[in-house]
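Morning, I've got a small favour to ask if you have a moment. I owe you a coffee for this, so here goes:

…
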Amino acid sequence: MFDKVLIANRGEIALRLHRACREMGIRTVAVHSTADSDAMHVRLADESVCIGPPPAVDSYLNIPAILAAAEITGSEGIHPGYGFLSENAEFAHIVEEHGYTFIGPSEQHIRIMGDKIQAKQTVGKLGIPVVPGSDGAVTDGEEARALAEEMGYPILIKAASGGGGRGMKLVRQGSEFSAALTAARTESKAAFNDDSVYLEKYLERPRHIEVQVIGDGTGKVVHLGERDCSLQRNNQKVLEEAPSPALNEEARQRIGQVVVEALSHINYTSLGTVEFLYEDGEFYFIEMNTRLQVEHPVTEAITGIDLVREQIRIAAGAPLSFSQEDIRFSGHAIECRVNAEHPTTFVPSPGQVVDFHAPGGLGVRVDSALYAGYRIPPNYDSLIAKLVVHGTTRNDCLMRLSRALGEFVVDGIDVNIPLHTEMIQQQDFIQGDYHIHWLEEFLGRQS
């Protein structure tokens, strides 16, 4: 097992990683920008190293600075968390090349799944169903238009690299195609330094279902059920729950087994999430995230398995500590992403937290690095906390979630807690009858 792990991230996930390491008897090193010198994970870590000024490109994306911090502190493993360098295959390669252990999937798996075109081709060969679309990147505008006409509108033009909705354009009719193709390429180039795009059939009202998997690199892969991530705004997840109210046991077992068999063939290592669109009883692969997910706590709640702990064990060379037969799903869990933003305009709201009170009680978990007096910097993502609630049934979970949201206090800045409070009171949500466009349609009716 590792003696010391460097945490190459910030905010709530850095604190989550620190806690897992501490419970395993592993010392931690926090790296931070000058904007995060008073962050909670920096205060609690055994050691801390400043790696640059506030811009992420000069700090949390600064690979030489991170490696230098690992060297001077004698770290053995480097955990990237999520975001930043977590799905950067070159970073994983450099970490291993310099004699440290990258706590995550292999460079090869990150590289394959990081390119969405290659990922679709790979999983298609492994038997995972994919959304109908182009076989690879589209380069010729006229050929791309002809393919779109053949597929039938509406279609999506999507960036081959990256995610988060960047480089993604919806085209409902042929007259919009050329302008959308140009815009998608331009946006993709700016965001990912890659203007490769591909075409995909647009599904009108699908659910966004993702399957959590973990493997130890020997061909042993286990799935830990699914999460429903359909409540999204601008292709960004807002609320997640597990299990999905849209799936029955037969569908759950079917897709879980398909994913396990496919990833076993490539000896997948560490945590990963295979994401699907689900409509009319059919699953369609959209992408795979080769990292720890923001929403991992809902899976932990219904399985009782510490995913970060298991990820660290595997990186240290240990085999999976459980088999598929050991997995038991208990109750229902929902996660609300609490962002520092106005609840109706969604304008980011960095600034000083005057007062902070996290809700508590049975089945309530808050992952956050906030404290009263902390100043949220304007340089990073607006996610500041995750409220995770577990109940015996979905209805119990909803009642507990409503109570917990009412107790949550973050004063001094704007937060989106009122949005969550209003959203979970809607009859569609209470009945579990929603899709990936539901939230934006709801917000449109409110405006």
User: Anything to note?
Assistant: DSSP finds 15 helices and 20 strands in the chain. The mean pLDDT is 95. The longest helix spans residues 249-265.
